[in-house]
Amino acid sequence: MAETKKRNLTDVAEAALQEDIITGRLRPLERITEAEIAHRLGISRAPVREALRLLDRDGLIERSSQGFIVSEITLEEAEDIFATIAFIEELYTRRATPRLMQDDVIRLRKVLADMKTIADSGNVAGYSAVNKAFHQIIKDACPNKSLLELVDTVGKRTSRYRRFAVGIPGHLQRSVIDHSRIVDEIEKGDAAAAGRAARKTALETFKRVRKALHYTGRIT
């Protein structure tokens, strides 16, 4: 029972810190201390320590001479991460396509309609949620669970960079168009084309991330 409670508290701490890092509330190179986080969340330091270990493993934070700091934002990392996630998304979409039935396509079309409505409203947080729902439908049909574990790990680091793309005018609307192409190919049953569309969607997002990093002065 005690171990289960600790695990739950670790999940709470990890989720809170991950959200702070992805949204930018914790800035790159900002120091993170166990005591401060434990006090803020109202929990002991042990689950916070474990959460920090997990975030370090996932590349969201790193060790320094003073403890843990938030990992830096760099173009090199963004390029590597998006190249990786593009490859992975192509693979799982390709594997999932033959297993996606007409009911799944209908669900994807429904989520896509929600994505368009939310994109037009400019609700970034809402768009992120429905975007995850879109990809989850596809991932649920992928039989390669090891591949999906990679998606979860790399996806956390990708999320840090995706938020920069929303600053580019029209990004959400273009994202909807990119995702509609994925559904079109899935509906045709063309696994290879669906995979290519998924890969292109990720790489197009990277182009906008790169542009945003230039605009914000994070890279020159």
How does this structure look, described?
With 220 residues, the protein is mainly α. It folds into two domains: 1-70, Arc Repressor Mutant, subunit A, CATH 1.10.10; 75-216, Up-down Bundle (Four Helix Bundle (Hemerythrin (Met), subunit A)), CATH 1.20.120. Helix content is 75%, strand content 5%. It has helices spanning 2-23, 34-41, 45-57, 75-96, 102-121, 124-140, 145-165, 171-188, 191-215; strands spanning 31-32, 61-64, 67-70. The protein has a three-stranded antiparallel β-sheet. A hairpin with a 2-residue loop joins strand 2 and strand 3 (67-70). The longest helix has 25 residues, at 191-215. The model has no long low-confidence stretch (mean pLDDT 91).
User: What is the architecture of the largest domain at the second tier of CATH?
Assistant: Up-down Bundle
User: What is the domain total for the residues?
Assistant: 2
Strand content: under 5%
Low-confidence stretches: none
GO molecular function: DNA-binding transcription factor activity; sequence-specific DNA binding
Keywords: DNA-binding, Transcription, Transcription regulation
Protein name: GntR family transcriptional regulator
Organism: Affinibrenneria salicis
